[in-house]
Amino acid sequence: MADDLRADARSNRDQILAAAEVVFREQGVDVPMKEIADRAGVGVGTLYRRFPDRGALISAAARSYIGALAELAATARDEEDRAWLALCRFLRECAESRLGATASAIEPALQADTRADPGLTDIRASVAEQVARLTAQAQVDGDLRTDVDAQDVSRLMSLQIYTRPDEPYAAAVRRTMDILLDGLRAR
Q1: pTM, entire model
Q2: pLDDT tens track for 112-160
Q3: Would you give the distance in Å from CA 47 to the centre of its chain?
Q4: Are the C-beta atoms of residues 69 and 157 closer than 8 Å to each other?
């Protein structure tokens, strides 16, 4: 029975974090906590049992999205034959997941926490290291322009893509990323 409760609690926590990331991305971090609980399909009490205040929820959401980012980078690196292909895949996945909108919503509220939380610092360092390795290898391979550095690639990870009302988001991402990646490619 205790394992079922733990699994249920973990499921609730995951649902809350997923809902928080979406709501923060769409409306910012000042959204009422009840709205996040409703979106997650849990009661407000359940939300507060898992996250005692807004700051704890924001920090956990940041840890979750940065962890997912590290996983995207590692998976791209492991599954693609060339660093350039991994870098392209990673940047496309960042855009598809609307990382830029999530970062814009969460990051300003996190500045102090990021400096104080070694877990967030470690995850960020892992992402930065993976981006630096992919960038350097793609340049060594002759696929990436030599005047582009890992900081440039990091900025592109949080690119926000505007879509017209009549345009599907996926189509806008495809077109924008095709142009962007063509501009990064070594000639």
Answers
A1: 0.84
A2: 665 567 777 888 889 999 999 999 999 999 999 999 999 999 999 988 8
A3: 22
A4: yes
- Residues β-bridged to residue 185: 144
Q: How far is CA 143 from the centre of its chain?
A: 25
- Residue 175's CB is within 10 A of a number of other CB atoms, namely 12
What distances in angstroms separate CA 72 from CA 45, 49, 100, one per listed residue?
33, 30, 15
Number of H helices, E strands in the chain: 9, 0
Can you give the length of the chain in residues? Answer: 187
> Residue 82 has which token pair?
């060339």
Structure tokens at 63: 């840890």
Q: Where is 43: in which H helix or E strand?
A: none
**Main-chain phi, psi angles of 40, to 5 degrees:** -80, -15
Cα 168 to chain center, whole Å?
Answer: 21
